[in-house]
Amino acid sequence: MSNLRDDTFWDGPSQEPLLPKTGKRTRGKPTTKAERMETRGRARALQALYAADVRDQAQLRRIATTVFDDLAVIPEEREFASRLVATVADNVEALDAALAEVTNNWRLERLGVIERCVLRLAAAEMARNETPVKVVLQEAVHLAERYGTERSARFVNGVLDAYARKLGKL
Distance (Å, rounded) from C-alpha 153 to C-alpha 143? Predict the structure, then answer.
């Protein structure tokens, strides 16, 4: 029996590392480190957009820097998120106007903050032309579902689908 001074009491018994089960297939291609970094970067950019939306949209860059510092965002994620935030900051009026054209019967300022920020983020990423549109749509829906609701995800999907079609990207 181990006592409180015994390392195995605190560390537990040594065991073999857990290995993934074999023979099980996952849908689609496996997630790579780069994809995970981009997904996390989008979430960080969304957090910055949200913070600026509820505080002061004009201070988006400063607020994003503070959010990234507070969350200790790793450099690769920070760089990716910063590019998206900068695109929103530089083009927010144009992005909002374009999104307003496809949000039937909804003014952008009447949307929930999460939905508005996800739409801006996805529109900015589409404007950058660095990521396939279907990936942007899928990631935006995932963010809306994760930080909003299932209803948010359906709304975001419909608006971004119409937006991408209007741009001729789908």
Answer: 8
